[in-house]
Design brief:
12 strands, ten-stranded mixed sheet, alpha+beta, elongated
Length: 414
């Protein structure tokens, strides 16, 4: 057995340590490490959870990748493209692409007896993925779209329903700018809520056939295609892949397509989400720094308390490096104890928040109604390994004080 490891273990488990003068200092150091680890785990879980939830909501309204007309402007009144494209729907077979669906939009106005509100009717087809809205519906249900048979059912948000005093089953009258103005009566099949107010107050989800008729389009004319991918982290690579499949070269007089991803469409939201990473790195740095200072002070006390032992080991022929290893091993045991306690506290509090949502947030500001938690095992492993390695490495410097201890003086006061 490694001699230094053996001595360090005996020191760590020795009963007399519980009554030593260093006990209080060591306990504070271990608790400081535990608290720092708990804060780091919760910080990473909260920030990654926040980013993931907001990101999923934005993607739910606009997908990962958008294919539309090259001449499309920033309004919701766009030039149509043909639904009959060589990549539709076969592009789904490409690895990494989850789904492709058609859509069309039309700006309009909802009018009730006492209120008026500008919205966008987003028309979807039979290939629409309802999973996001099915999770967000709080009243009523989604509706089925059948090829060749228009449905007047629509989904509206809780924000619009509250503002316009509408309920499931009520008629919804929308007006569209034409010459003359066109009016369409819809039926509210369901009410959804995503807490993403920028989107909730804007979109009404309906049958794409209505948008096509309002725009005097054929059934093969649409605004574009929405593509969902399997992994958001691969979004840029998948955008390039789709772009290679579709092409964006412009030839005058010929229909041309352009490819954009969700980060290009809503840069303000995704840039804001990326800024949250800076806060996490600051918190992680501060917590590791606190852990390092706690253990340095604790190690100094341990060395001073064990001066006699150091003198005896030197008198028996032990080298400074060997004795330093004893105390570094001892410190790593203490750090591990603190990390174990910190994991228990951090993961425990996180699981409580994940299941019971005790800590609430203002949805109008944060886009979600409670503090989100997103645990990933590799995040936790990296935090533990990084803290242990950095803290132990930094303890090499204070351990060098052992070389200044002379055996004669240390044993003299034994």
């Amino acid at each position: 057995m490694n001699l230094e490891w053996f001595i360090a273990r005996r020191l760590f488990y020795a009963k007399e340590n519980k009554d030593g003068i260093s006990n209080s200092v060591i306990s504070i150091a271990v608790f400081g490490i535990a608290l720092g680890m708990a804060v780091m785990i919760l910080s990473v879980a909260v920030v990654t959870g926040f980013k993931e939830q907001v990101r999923q909501k934005v993607i739910g309204f606009g997908s990962h990748i958008l294919i539309s007309n090259y001449d499309t402007n920033n309004s919701y009144e766009a030039y149509p493209i043909s639904k009959n494209q060589s990549f539709y729907p076969d592009i789904e077979k490409i690895k990494g692409i989850k789904h492709i669906q058609v859509f069309a939009t039309k700006a309009g106005i909802i009018k009730t007896k006492s209120e008026i509100q500008g919205v966008v009717l987003k028309g979807v087809g039979t290939d629409f993925d309802w999973s996001f809205f099915n999770q967000s519906i709080i009243e009523g249900n989604s509706f089925k779209i059948t090829e060749g048979k228009k449905t007047d059912n629509v989904l509206i948000s809780k924000y619009l329903a509250s503002l316009l005093k509408l309920n499931v089953g009520d008629p919804l009258f929308m007006y569209f700018i034409h010459d003359p103005i066109k009016m369409k009566r819809f039926n509210i099949a369901g009410i959804y809520s995503t807490d993403l107010q920028e989107m909730d107050k804007l979109f009404v989800i309906g049958d794409i056939a209505h948008v096509q008729k309002l725009n005097d389009w054929s059934e093969n004319q649409i605004n574009g295609f929405e593509i969902l991918v399997d992994d958001f982290d691969q979004l840029d690579q998948m955008t390039t892949l789709v772009n290679n499949q579709v092409g964006t070269q412009y030839i005058e007089g010929k229909e041309q397509l352009t490819v954009k991803n969700i980060k290009d469409i809503y840069p303000q939201i995704f840039d804001w989400l990326e800024l949250t990473n800076t806060n996490v790195w600051i918190i992680l740095g501060l917590m590791v720094l606190v852990s390092v200072f706690n253990m340095i002070s604790g190690l100094f006390v341990i060395i001073l308390e064990r001066t006699n032992m150091i003198g005896i080991l030197k008198a028996l022929g032990a080298r400074n490096f060997s004795i330093s290893k004893v105390f570094l091993y001892h410190a790593s045991f203490l750090i591990s104890k603190g990390l174990l306690l910190g994991n228990f506290i951090g993961i425990g509090l996180g699981l409580i928040q994940y299941h019971y949502h005790f800590v609430k947030l203002d949805p109008s500001t944060y886009y979600i109604d409670s503090v989100p938690i997103n645990f990933k095992i590799w995040h936790i492993l990296l935090l533990n390994a990084g803290t242990l390695l950095i803290t132990t490495f930094m303890l090499v410097i204070p351990s060098l004080i052992i070389s200044r201890i002379k055996p004669a003086n240390a044993i003299k006061f034994a």
